[in-house]
Every structure is written in C-alpha cells, then in structure tokens.
Amino acid sequence: MSESTRRVALDIMGTRTPPGAHDGFAGLDERDRALVKQLVTGTERWKRLLDWYISAFSHRSLGKLAPEVLNALRLGAYQLVFMGLPAYAAVNSVVECLRAKSHRGFVNGVLRALARNQGHVEMPSIDDGPEEYAGIRYSFPDWIVSRYFESFGIQDALSLLKVQNSPPPVTLRVNTSKTNRGRLLEILRQAGFSAEPGKLGISIKVVGGRTVSGFPGYNEGWFAVQAEAAMIVTMVLDPEPGDLVWDVCAAPGGKTMHIAEMASDGGVVVATDVSRDRIALITQSSKRLGFDNVLTAVLDATDPGATAGAFERARLPMCFDKVLVDAPCSGLGVIAKHPDIKWMRREADIPEMARRQTLLLDTAARFLKPGGALVYSTCALTREENQDVWLRFLDGHREFVPVGERVTFDNGAALDMAIGYGYLLPHVHGTDGFFIAKALKRHG
Ligand SMILES: C[S@@+](CC[C@H](N)C(=O)[O-])C[C@H]1O[C@@H](n2cnc3c(N)ncnc32)[C@H](O)[C@@H]1O
Predict the structure, then answer these.
(1) Ligand 1 atom showing the smallest separation from residue 302 Cα
(2) Cis (ω within 30 of 0) for the bond into 169?
C-alpha cells in the first residue's frame, strides 16, 4: 500500500465525502481504491474503540486535537489493531503524510506506544457495566446500545452489535427478464469472481472488493446490486403483471426496478421522490436494466394536495393497485454497510422521522384503490418509526386490514409477518435490518 493511499484516506476522513467523490481516489488503481475504502470505513466503524486505545497512550485529550491529527491517530491505530500491520508500516506512512508537520512527533509517539502495548490496554468489564462495555468493545454510541439492550435483551443485543460491525457481502438481484441465476453465476465465476447463490432464488452473493460496474453483465443490465432485505420488501408487495404500482419514496430506485420486473407484461410503476437529483438515478437504472414501464415524478408525498397536483401535471394516474412506502428513516438497520450512521444519527432525529413517516402513509392511503395493497418498510430498528407509526396508521384508517405473510428463504430462515408486520434482523436473518408491514384497503 502506497503512502498516497493513506493520504487519500486521510483527506476523505477529513472532508466526509464518499470515497468515489474524492479527486485523489480516481487516480488510484482498483486495488488501492479497495484499500482506501477499507481504511476509511474500517476506521469509521471502529472509531469509539480506536479512541479508547489511543486515549490510553495520549497525554492530550482527544477532544482538543486538530481533526487531521486525530484522524491520523485513528488510521494508524486501525492499521495496528485491525489490520495487524507491523509498526514500521502502520506508523511511518501515516506520520509521513501528515500535513501538520509539527504534530508528527506526537502522532509517532502515541502510535509507537500503542504498537508496543496494545495487548495490555485495559477494557471496561462487562460485569461493571454491560452497556458501557458494549459501547466501547463494539464501537457504538451509548444511545444505540441502550435501545438495543431494551429491545432485544443483552445476549441478542451483543450479537446484533457484533454482526453490524461485519461488512456485508455484495449481493446481486438477477434481472430475470434478461437472464437467470444459474447462467449469471457461471458467467461471474468464469470471469474469476467468487460468486455463490444467495438466500433467495433471485440473489447472488459476490465476495471480493472489485468495482461492481466492472462485473460482466453490468452494462447489459443482467443484474442490479441490491441487499436481500430490500428484495424481500418487493416480494411482500408482490406486484403482478398488469398492476399499476406507486413507489412513493423511490430513489435511487432499487425497489422500483424490482417492481418493474415483477409487474412487466402490462404493469406500470410510478416512481416518485422529493429529490430531483436522486430521481435521475432511477431513469439511469431503467435504461441499464431495460425497463420501459417506469414513470417518474418529483413530488413531496407528505403533502397530499401537492402530490395530486404533481400527478395531474405529469398526466399520471391517481389510483393504484399497490403502493409502497419505503420511508426515509434513521437507518440503524444498515449500519453494517454505512458505519457513519452510528455517529451522524442523533436520537433526537427519531420523532421527526416518525412524524414524516406518518404523513407519507396518510398520503399513500388516499391514492390506493379499494382492494389494493399497501406496504410500509423502513431500515430502522426503532419502535417509534416502525410499530408505533404503523399501528397508529391502522388505528386512524379503519378501512385497512393487516395481511399476515411469511417469506421463507432458501436457507430455511423466514420473515414472519403473521401479525401483519415483522422484522428482518441482521443477527437472526443474516440480512440488513428492516421493518416490513402490509395491509389491504377494504372495498366500500
Ligand atoms: C429509504 S430511501 C428509498 C430507497 C428506495 N425505495 C430504493 O429502494 O432504492 C427514502 C427516499 O425517500 C425520499 N423522500 C424523503 N422525503 C420524501 C417526501 N416527503 N416525499 C417523497 N420522497 C421523500 C428520499 O429522497 C429518499 O430517496
């Protein structure tokens, strides 16, 4: 790994831009890009534990350090503790790419002390305080740990925290309008990828850090990159040929594409989102995957009047067979893939999320035809955004009847929605964390 990879990693950590959006990243070869991503996301994932290690050897309080100095310490500590790099490789290159030269001695001293003594750093004891122990050992903020302990109990909460620190594999959803899983598996393997069947009949798991747009079949639209939990949401919605479906919060369009595929042969999906930029991603995916049954519109679905106006102006239908509200949420279920959520999300955001989710469901209900199906999903693991929003919705909309469902995976696990809703859980199902609920709108 070259020094420039560390420099690019440090720059990305400082600016908080996604790696792909950084200028220096584009100039790296594929192997170095994968390493930069690993360094940036790994350091982000383990930030609290890394700070614990660093604090043991720093005479200065971490809160008082310049951001570049703290990030350099975290990057060096990550390489020592999690990548097992020898001290000369882990420390020197980080120190040498520090712009603040006057801090090089300090960073060098702390990292060398950590390299010599990392096995002797004392951890908090689970017996003294299980929540504090879990927050530091698994590198999560206190408020998420407390919520997990309360919702799942200590043992399951510890399993969940652990699983959410493992980067998930890339999963592909086979575009069955163009190919089938067996054929795509063969093509990927022939091209040297380590690919195996996923948990669902339509999914493939790919191991290895190569760029997805370089996979064979990408330009031909033979697959979409999608998490299996997200595939299950559309399976629960169950769009059929000929259906008219509204995907309310559709961008970037992962589920829209799956709906378009399942409803093809006469079915149409209207994909809307409040973000014009993100709607453009849906149009791109429709082209790549070859679906001409996707219509898009920019609208704010928390406002039913504005929604009706936008439908009218775009000459879109106003009454749908099926509606999906895949709502914006706190995102705790996808921390494994996006560890920055641990530190960016605030507990205080949750009530506002729940308020918006409720408004989105109220609008969705208006545009669903009698006899039609409504699916509500989030990648949140908080009761307020899930059961509370959903049960309050059902309470205020007596015309809706919950639907019991069960989705069984190829490995025998299942999503149980017998009471009309259920959770996919990382430590139980081996997927992202999702909440999924379904109800039918009564006739008359
Ligand atoms: C969880 S993401 C949707 C992911 C998408 N369903 C998929 O599978 O690719 C939530 C989306 O809701 C959109 N959104 C947020 N507020 C909205 C609103 N008031 N009306 C419509 N869309 C909204 C966001 O822009 C974001 O794209």
Answers:
(1) 19
(2) no
The pLDDT profile of the chain, 444 residues, written as one tens digit per residue, is 556 899 899 989 988 777 777 777 878 888 888 899 999 999 999 999 999 999 999 999 999 999 999 999 999 999 999 999 999 999 998 999 888 889 999 999 999 999 999 999 999 999 999 999 999 999 999 999 999 999 999 999 999 999 999 999 999 999 999 999 999 999 999 999 999 999 999 999 998 767 787 889 999 999 999 999 999 999 999 999 999 999 999 999 999 999 999 999 999 999 999 999 999 999 999 999 999 999 999 999 999 999 999 999 999 999 999 999 999 999 999 999 999 999 999 999 999 999 999 999 999 999 999 999 999 999 999 999 999 999 999 999 999 999 999 999 888 889 999 999 999 999 999 999 999 999 999 997
Of 249, 296, 345, 349, which is best to mutate to test ligand 1, by the most ligand atoms within 8 angstroms of its C-beta? 249
**With a threshold of 0.90, does the pTM exceed it?**
yes
With residue 171 as reference, give the H or E element that holds it. Answer: strand 170-174
Is residue 256 domain-shared with residue 192, that is, in the same domain? no
Alpha helices in 191-253 (DSSP H): 228-237
Provide CB contacts within 8 A for 273, sequence distance 6+.
249, 250, 251, 279, 282, 298, 299
Q: Whose Cα sits closest to atom 6 in ligand 1?
A: 250
The minimum-distance atom of ligand 1 relative to the CA of 253 is 9
Question: Closest residue (by CA) to atom 16 of ligand 1?
Answer: 274
What is the helix (H) or strand (E) element at residue 247, kind and residue range? strand 244-247
| Cα–ligand 1 centroid distance for 67 (angstroms) | 32
- Side chain identity at 194, as an amino acid letter? S
Indicate if 379 belongs to the active site: yes
Residue 115 alpha carbon to ligand 1 centre in Å:
45
What CA–CA distance (Å, rounded) separates 268 from 295?
8
Which of 199, 225, 251 is the last residue in one of the domains? 225
- Cα dihedral sign, 103-104-106-107: positive
Tell me if 221 sits within 8 A of 257, measured CB to CB. Answer: no
Measured from CB, residues less than 6 Å from any atom of ligand 1 are 230, 249-255, 273-275, 278, 300-302, 326, 328
Task: Calculate how far, in angstroms, residue 93's C-alpha sits from the geometric centre of ligand 1.
Answer: 41
What is the CA(280)–ligand 1 centre distance, in A? 13
CA 251 – ligand 1 centroid, Å: 6
Work out which ligand 1 atom sits closest to the CA atom of 303: 19
Clarify whether residues 213 and 277 are in a common domain.
no
Residues 437 and 295 placed together within one structural domain of the fold: yes
Q: Which atom of ligand 1 is nearest to the CA of 300?
A: 20
What's the domain range around 39?
3-120
| Tokens linked to 227 | 């998490």
Question: Is residue 62 one of the residues assigned to a domain?
Answer: yes
